[in-house]
Amino acid sequence: MPMDNFIFGRYLPMDSIIHKMNPAAKIFLCFYFVILVFFANSLLSYSAMCLFVIVLIFLSKSPIKMFFKGIMPLIWIILFTIAIQILFSSGGEMIYKIGIINITTFGIKNAIFLFMRFILIISLSTILTITTDPLEISSGISILLRPLKKLKFPVETFSLMISIALRFVPTLTDETKTIMDAQRSRGVDFGSGGLVKRVKSFIPLLIPLFVSAFKHADNLSIAMESRGYRINNRRTHYNNYGWSNFDTLSLFLAVFISMIIFILRK
Amino acid sequence: MANNIIDVRNISFKYGDANKNAINDLSFSIDEGEWVSIIGKNGSGKTTLINLLDGLIKSNNGDIIVDNLKIDNKNLDNIRDKIGIVFQNPENQFVASTVKEDVAFGLENRQYDISKMHKIVDNALKEVDMLKYKDSNPSKLSGGQQQRVALAGVIAILPKIIILDESTSMLDPKAKKIIINLINKLRIKNKLTVLSITHDMNEIQYSDRVLLLKDGNLIKNISPLKLFNELDDVENYGLEIPFSEKLRLQLKKNGFNIGNNYINDEEIVKWITQYYSKM
Amino acid sequence: MDNSVLFKNVIYKYQMNTPFQHTALNNINLKIKAGSFVSIVGKTGSGKSTLVKHINALLKPNSGTINVGNFTINSKTNNKNLKKLRRKVGMVFQFPEQQLFANTVKEDIAFGPLNFGYEENKIPNIVEHVSKIVGIDKDLLNKSPFELSGGQQRRVAIADVLATNPEILILDEPTAGLDPEGKKFIMNLINDLNKNQDITIILVSHQMDDVAKYSDEVIVMQDGNLVKQCYPDELFANTNLLKKYDLQMPVSVKINLMLNERGFKLNDLHLDEDDLINAIINKLKEC
């Protein structure tokens, strides 16, 4: 159940100060800090950022294991970029050179920063997904998109679309698993053989999946209409995410941390 | 006299490129508070009829009047306030990732304000005994629980008519029973009219009347007790002959005087044991 | 060759090494004899589907072994060499019409045999043969499977699996969602495959009437444990057991019991409905 884990398995319902934050504020701050990571350019500014993220992890009461799980799927990409940085960058003091391979102090320093950047970004997004359930994320996004309403962007429809898509993830994941099992039983080897054969082997999976997705969509639209849904009609919302003092405080905190990073920048 | 709540007058409907009417000059009416079952094989027009009644599709001919309102574009929202549908496949009627938000969907569409909405959702979930699953993900519930949640979503808008579109056909016998008992309870409490598409005699036996559809035509309008007696081809309507009925027919064939009406398991056991003790 | 299925100390855990880990199969030992009709019953989530998925190695045990004929499946079984096993063990999933994908019914049925390396010139015969078995008209063979009715799609999906000529056939709720006529057809078909073609049937079902009527043996699963393997009458005659395992009573058993409680005692337990009707009528006639 990889897809299931990717989106749902991450949320850990717990009682932390981060869990209780307004989802819109949380998403906004998550993006804000990810951008802030890119402004760090010195050992000190990176260290400050790391310290801050460690405090966040601590506040969110999330098990460290979950962060390793977030990093593991990307580990090869991370190692690859780091290897390129170490082996091929120029500048700084030369340590080792053979052929096109060029190991310099500058390269090593960059590689360390790059590594920290990866870890920081993954940790920040993991904090968001661990402490916010998918539904809150979709509500949060729709709150953040609200200004776009003025530009006639269908924010309401868009956010309902996201939440329905999220709601169907477990359903379609289950169906994918069953169809894969059924076709395996009929002798399909998913992902073996040459490229053409491999791609071809997914046709017996994808066609039934599309057929089923269309069927779901068709039936769901009938059910929604019968329950009084009309596209572009105004709707009220069951969930109202409150704005607490902590949310306000966290915005001030963001400004304060930005100042620190900019001071520590080179 | 009871009020006429659904009045269907000579409606016909044809799907785009079909060469035959899916619904063919159909007329019937249903009184307020009645429980009517609609039976017929797949393709007999049952689901088309439901879609017509809720204004999800428009008939080519004829009129449908629901609670004194004729179905047309102007009245659509009003009519949908009066009708709640529980569909066959729970998977295809949920929009939200939590039970409470799904039950609230119809209320959100009708622009209820938050404080009222929360109260109504809690009450509706209490009615179907699902309040403790309020925060659960509907797709993690059992089929029977899912249909109870769907039912809560329907009764939250206080409809006058509930349509069950094969709502119990995918459930196990135990879950079926729970749903049927719930409907029975709510029907009396909320003075509901129930229209149910079904193959299940355990459900049909509670209804006041049965409408038999075949190829878009209304073949019979009959009491459920007479079903097996007056029709020797019930299997052509997608209906299974229940054990008690098989037994009754065999007893009759063997010269026992057991009457012509449908009787259920409990009743036939009673009949047999009484007959036996009189010997 | 003996194609019996043998589970030895099979343990399977879902989502190993995560906070969500749970034991789906807990030390399962069982034997299913070749040529028998065995039903697996139990509540949703009791491990029935997980159990049968081990028989054609869709899942592999964390520990223990499964023998199917001369195949052995354990935690180290390689995914590469499973074709022979899967050809031997056919699997019909719940709502199997979900697996249909080809342009025509014919191509869909041919898909399995081609995967398993049947000679291409034999395919038309196979298609014709299995479509006849499941009652699909010849003129439907060139249609798209998506144009067919639900009941016909189900038959095609079963033909898909029969086309590879399995010696063991596993079916997970094969009649779910069908009308009574369709249900009867499928159950008769399965029974016929077992009795006349000697195919081992492993049926996962909630329909206790079918289980009681057709099976040689019943396996009861509860919370990942195999709690009982016995003859159907041994299970269904014992209402305490049914209650304990939370199983529905077959109608025939229910009527029998109700009659019994009211002093109308039949000599034998009749699981077959027609037998029960005859027994009741004979007893009433006697007096």
Notes on the protein architecture:
The complex is a heterotrimer of chains A (266), B (279) and C (287). In chain A, helix 3 runs antiparallel to helix 11 (245-264). With 266 residues, chain A is mainly alpha-helical. Chain A has one domain. Chain A contains eleven helices and two strands. Chain A is flat. Helices cover 37% and strands 21% of the residues of chain B. Chain B has helices at residues 46-53, 76-82, 99-109, 114-127, 143-155, 173-189, 201-204, 227-230, 243-253, 265-278, and strands at residues 4-13, 23-31, 35-39, 61-66, 69-70, 83-86, 161-165, 193-197, 209-214, 217-222. In chain B, the strands form two sheets. Chain B has a six-stranded mixed β-sheet, with helices on both faces. Chain B has a four-stranded antiparallel β-sheet with strand order 2-1-4-5, covered by helices on one side. In chain B, helix 3 runs parallel beside helix 5 (143-155) and helix 5 (143-155) runs parallel beside helix 6 (173-189). The longest helix of chain B is centred in the middle third of the chain and has 17 residues, at 173-189. Chain C contains eleven helices and ten strands. In chain C, the strands form two sheets. A six-stranded mixed β-sheet of chain C has the order 6-7-8-3-9-10. In chain C, strands 2-1-4-5 form a four-stranded antiparallel β-sheet, with no helix packed on it. In chain C, helix 3 (105-115) crosses helix 4 and helix 3 (105-115) runs parallel beside helix 5 (150-162). The longest helix of chain C has 18 residues, at 180-197. At the A-B interface, helix 8 and helix 10 of A face helix 2, strand 6, helix 3 and helix 4 of B.
Quick synopsis:
Chain B is of the alpha/beta class. Chain B has helices spanning 46-53, 76-82, 99-109, 114-127, 143-155, 173-189, 201-204, 227-230, 243-253, 265-278; strands at 4-13, 23-31, 35-39, 61-66, 69-70, 83-86, 161-165, 193-197, 209-214, 217-222.
Task: Name a few traits of the molecule.
heterotrimer, A: 266 residues, mainly alpha, two-stranded antiparallel sheet, 11 helices, 2 strands, flat, C: 287 residues, alpha/beta, Rossmann fold, 6-stranded mixed β-sheet, 4-stranded antiparallel β-sheet, 38% helix, 21% strand, globular
Summarize the helix and strand pattern of chain A as letters: HHHHHEEHHHHHH
Compute the separation of the termini of chain A in Å: 45 Å
Individual helix count of chain B = 10
Quaternary structure? heterotrimer
| Helix share bin of chain B | 25-40%
Main beta sheet of chain B: strand number and arrangement? Answer: 6 strands, mixed
Membrane topology (chain B): Peripheral membrane protein
Family (chain B): Belongs to the ABC transporter superfamily.
Keywords (chain B): ATP-binding, Cell membrane, Membrane, Nucleotide-binding, Translocase, Transport
Domain ABC transporter (chain B): 6-240
